[in-house]
Amino acid sequence: MTNPDTSYPIGTPGQSWGEAERAQWLAGQRKQRSHADDVLSAIDRLRDRFDVVEYGRLDYAGETYPLLALKSRDWRDDLPVALVTGGVHGYETSGVHGALRFAERDAADYAGRANLLIVPCVSPWGYERIHRWNMHAIDPNRSFRDDSPAEEAAALMRLVAPVQGRFLLHIDLHETTDSDESEFRPALAARDGKPYEPGEIPDGFYTVGDSVNPQLPFQQAVIDAVAKVTHIAPADARGEIIGSTVVSPGVILYPVKSLGLCAGVTDATYVTTTEVYPDSPRTTPDECNAAQAAAVRAALDHALTAG
Prior knowledge:
By secondary structure, this protein is an alpha/beta fold. It has one domain: Aminopeptidase, CATH 3.40.630.10. The chain contains eight helices and ten strands. The termini are far apart.
């Protein structure tokens, strides 16, 4: 899917936003769904199976959001640790609900094999506004670095810090949507005072591996499992997906740590970011959630088998 170039209604072309533009943008954001109803209630239903850890709390203009993680109740220091994250971009719905679906339906299968740390919704304010950014117009998924400007990212970094060196796996669940081109990329260009260059949205699921540590058989195991649930994104005419070379069917690579991506928050052996396309006429919201859960299962199965 490709969109024509459009001008963004906030800011002056060629000039990055100041406080006035950020305030104008924030004034336009509206709560559209409930983190408490959709996410916290689902976590509450899992309290008999997991330890629920509050690893931080956001206070945004008088609204308070607890940051919650699900932790294996049978945690053992001799087992590897697997991190599952969703909702780093709050608008990417299946990342949140795919993580919860895995926790509810599949996590028990890994008891005694791995310690699970599941963070279903890293960005609850963004979840409620169906937005990519936090309330300060900052993308948490470019903020996983020292002195992070995004509290969502900083809190997750504090959560994983005591377990660094023990992570076998990190899978970060995302979506690529039509709104990336209709709203979020134009907004990014306007915020940073840069020209907006239209792109193409891939139709289907793909993964983003770490260019420093690609682990292509691992990436392919995830792709193969998800292909049984939903369709895999093909390369475009240039052999690319979102501007990056396809190195294996449905797989591209990013330098995740240098970009400050959530996928670089650990030193796990196996790392991937999933991307589904919920706006495709060939899929449904439930299928997207199922694809995310299937990706987590496949990632764990491969990592635990390969070691």
